[in-house]
Each structure stands twice: as structure tokens, then as C-alpha cells.
Amino acid sequence: MTNSFVLTRWLLSGMRWLYETILSGTGMQASYAIVLTIFIFTLAIRSLSIFSDIKSRKSSMQMQEIQPDIDRIMKKYQNDPKRMNQERSKLMKERGVSTLSGCLPLLIMMPLFFMFINAFRAWSNEQMLSLLLTMDKDPQAGVQLFNQYKFFWILNIWRPDNLTSSAVLTGEQFWRTFAMSKATYIDKFIYYIEHQQVLDELLLRMGFFVKDAAGALTLAEDSTAFLASYETIMGPCIDAYKGYVNGYAILPILAGATSFLLSWVSMQQQNKNKKGDDSNSAASQAAGMGKGMMYVMPLMSVFFCWQYDATFSVYWIISNVIAVCINFILNKKLPAILERDKQKREAKLIKERN
Predict the structure, then answer these.
(1) What would the mean pLDDT of 249-262 be, rounded to a whole number?
(2) What is the rounded distance in angstroms from the CA atom of residue 260 to the CA atom of residue 146?
(3) Rounded to an integer, what distance in angstroms lies between the CA atom of residue 312 and that of residue 162?
(4) In the predicted model, what is the mean pLDDT of the chain?
(5) Share of the chain above pLDDT 70, in %
(6) Residues 113, 105 contacting (CB under 8 angstroms)
(7) 3-state class of 314 per DSSP?
(8) Fewer CB in a 10 Å sphere around the end CB: N or C, the chain?
(9) Full 3-state SS string of 47-109
(10) Do 142 and 223 have their domain in common?
């Protein structure tokens, strides 16, 4: 079991626990309890990363402040790379600037990004197994459970909010999803472990599994029997929204918009901190790359949120909004903090020289 899987499972376990606690304690509709769970978890994780955000922002602002000096060093020692690096390192050390600090948020948030994708995908698959099991035992209770997943315009929060996805996983989609999962990690699903015997019996009866010569369960080679059984069991849910798409792609658009807003806020602060005409400097080149990312990231956000369940879109939007708020706060507070740090460094240098 890889470390990434362990972390993903830890994240999923925590979200499931909080979701079930909210659901049992408040009695609210399942979809709203899911969104509240996502909000609380996202806020908590963002709070943990605030220190790296502060360090990164301070480093970025300090780098912009000393960029003219770095440009002069690079021009002065352009024919002596070794001396150039020495002088640049000396300057950055004197000013308390670290190039690695700017990478911290990315090093933290990118793994979290993929952890959340995997966690929501696993959670969605578990909910599908739960719905199938409930529909088999009590179709009326299953329909009631399915209706709990409605969230505003989205018929099923565990499915993508786009213009092509159905509200319920089709039999073919279920087969592709879980046939692949059985060969990899379905036996590690928390819900599967909790209900393994009854799920194995159901999937065997449906024709998803067959028994080999040794009596062990193995995936059926032909999906025909399973697809017919699936249509029978899930029929009431499928028929309720037959011909309807699951959503109107509003969440992917909001994810793209909030990603653009976050990039725009960051770019505005960079432009505010730029001093003088450094159009040929490394800072200007970095700003150009940042401007490109301001358009690339929203497109990537729309792409990911179009494909994955609406729960991931909700997480991404909440995460972006929290990040925008953090940016606004840091933009107001950090200049004063940096000025105090600068005065302390200057006082220390004067004291050392004397």
C-alpha cells in the first residue's frame, strides 16, 4: 500500500466520519451535509498551509524588492558566472530571501489536489455501492437515498455537473469503474470492507462476479447478465431522470472563474510591488509566466471539474475562495511586516559593522 493511498484513505476516513457526524447530529439533507463537510475540511487544511503561504508571499515580495540589485549583479558579472552566483547568494542572505520558500505552497497544495481527486472518486464509488445495496434490499428506501443526493440544480452530487453525464451511473459505467477497481483497490474501500460479505453476495448474484474452480470470486468475462440485473435493480432511479443530464456545468464554470480571480489577485499584488522599469529583468519574465498561468489555470480547473464528481468542484471552488480571502489579508498585512523585518536587518548589519 503506497503512501499516497494511505494519505488518501486517511482523508476519506476523516471526511466520512465528519459527514456521518453532521448527518446524524443535524438531520440535514445528505447533499448539504456533504458540502458542509467539504467546507470544514478545506478550511482546516487551508489553515494548516497558511504559514507556508505567508513564507512564500514574504519571499516573493522580498525577491521583487531586491530584483534591481540582482539585475545589476547579473550585468556586472555576466562573464563570471561563479562570481555572479556568489554575489547573488550573498545579497539574498543579507536580505533574508529564500528561493525555496516560494515553492512551499505548490509542494503542499499539488499533492493535496490529487489526494482530494482520489478521495472524492473513492467516496463517490462507495456511495454508488451503498445505493446499489440499498436499492436491492428496499427500492423505496433506495430512491429516497438517491433523492438525498440532489443539490440545487444538480440531480446527483456524486456525479459530474456537466451537460453530458447522466444522474445515475449506467450499467456499462459501473462495470468499467468497478471491474477495473476490483483488480486494483476495491478491496481496500472502507465501505467495501464494512459490507464485504453482503456486497460479494449481491455482485455474485448479479453476474458481476463468478466463482472459479477453487471457489474464489473472480470478475465475470461477460457483462451481459450483470447489465440486465443492474438495469432491473437501479431501474427506479434511472427511470426517474431518464433523458436528463445531471447538471448545467455551473460548478466547472465557477471553478474556472474563482481560479481566474485567485490568479488575478496574485498578479495585481505582483504589479503593485514592481519598482522601476525592469522590463528585461528575471522578475518581468516571471511576471509574464504568471500572466500566462492566469489563463491556463482556469481552463485546467474547468477541465478537471467537468470530468470529476460535483463534490470535487465544490472543494475546488471553496478552496479558491478561501485562498482569495487569504491573499487579500496578506496583501494588507505583509508590507508592514516586511518593513519591520527590513529595519531589523539593517539595524543588525549596522551593529555588526560597528
Answers:
(1) 95
(2) 34
(3) 13
(4) 83
(5) 82
(6) no
(7) helix
(8) C
(9) HHCHHHHHHHHHHHHHHHHHHHHHHHHHHHCCCCHHHHHHHHHHHHHHHCCCCHHHHHHHHHH
(10) yes
